[in-house]
Amino acid sequence: MRVQRRIPVLAAAWLLVSALSVQAQTPVDPSGHWEGAITAPFGEVLVEIDLARSATGELTGTFSQPKQNLRGFPLANVVVDGRAISFQIKPSGGGGGAFHGILIADGKSMSGDFTAPIGTAPFNLTRTGEARIEAAPRNAPIAKELEGTWAGTLSVGARDLRLLLRLANQPGGTATGVILDPDQGVEIPLGLTVNGATLTLNSTPLKGDFFVGTLNQAGTELVGTFTDGPLTAPLTFRRAAAQEARK
């Protein structure tokens, strides 16, 4: 009798474990607009995360911190494994850091830890609607002299930040521009304004117009100024060597 009673109990336990295992592996689509806070020792830091799938199905996202007027900064390494989710802010935006969390089964909230150079703090986010990721800017065609990859170094205090600027005309009669931090893997789409030999770069994550430069007569340098709020610094882009252009 003991054996007969034990078999159903073991079977029920096995079915329960199996069901929990399946539930744990059920993926949750994190696409949407998320709002919440990182609970740091000095108080709550309000943040917004937008996640969406590209045309190829790859997850992309942006980070915003409205109180700091930081909006639409691209996230890197967005990964979902079952209900586990992780994504990174590269150091060029918001000081850098990584989110590691768990999506609740109904897909309406996520929580976990945010790790930055100064330490680790818990975060909680709630999905409030559809993703608010801006489409890449549509720019008028640019002169062929501007097309290609340009390399520059921005010196801010004791730090030197390597940058790559990629400009190209597209078949549909538009032009695209992106600025990259090759050391951190950050890539930001750009708006382009051309007035004669003067090129202005702007982007929502970089708070509007952030670079104005002039193409020299030889077509080898864009000499200008980088601006970020009260900060201004000289910045010159030069035609990138073939090896550097591939990064």
SSE string: HEEEEEEEEEEEEEEEEEEH
**CA-based gyration radius:** 23 Å
Determine the mean pLDDT.
Answer: 85
Low-confidence runs: 1-7, 10-24
Query: Mind telling me the CATH superfamily name of the largest domain?
Result: Quinohemoprotein amine dehydrogenase alpha subunit, domain 2
**Strand arrangement in the largest pleated sheet:** 4-3-2-1-9-8-7-6-5
Strand elements, count: 18
Overall structural class, as computed from helix and strand content, comes to: mainly beta
Total helices: the number is: 2
Helix content: 10-25%
Question: What name does the CATH topology of the largest domain carry?
Answer: Lipocalin
> Largest sheet, described in full?
9 strands, antiparallel
CATH architecture of the largest domain: Beta Barrel
What's the structural domain tally?
A: 2
CATH class of the largest domain: Mainly Beta
Residues in β-strands, percent: over 45%
**N/C terminus separation:** 71 Å
